[in-house]
Specification:
118 residues, alpha+beta, 13% strand
Length: 118
């Protein structure tokens, strides 16, 4: 997620200090959420082997679902950042999110309908 190690003496209030056998050894500075989103997008791009904007619609929808599960859209300007990376509009990202919600709702309905009554 893009964290980096810093000496314990340089640790700030938001850093995570790691100890070994009772002694502080190193601090980890976590990135801000916006930086984490950039790291997520870069990792997805590496995983797909090409820029996200070059993916087909179905794969882009899958990317949006994956990012939603990881909390990408709670980040300020998250939708805009993802839209830019995918080469689509914000409206399209919202459509992908709505489509994912509809798919989950249908799956729940079918799952409930397939269960035998007690």
């Amino acid at each position: 997620m893009g964290g980096r190690m810093v000496p314990v003496g340089e640790a700030g209030p938001d850093d995570v200090v790691l100890a070994w056998e009772g002694a502080d050894v190193v601090a980890v500075r976590l990135p801000r959420l916006a930086e984490s989103l950039d790291h997520l997008l870069a990792a997805l791009e590496r995983g797909h082997g090409r820029p996200l904007a070059e993916l087909d619609r179905k794969t882009k929808q899958s990317v949006v679902r994956s990012l939603e599960a990881r909390g990408a859209f709670v980040v300020r300007h998250g939708v805009e950042t993802v839209a830019t990376a995918l080469g689509v509009s914000r409206f399209t990202v919202y459509n992908y999110l709505n489509y994912a919600d509809e798919q989950r709702a249908r799956a729940r309905e079918h799952g409930a309908a397939d269960d035998p009554a007690p």
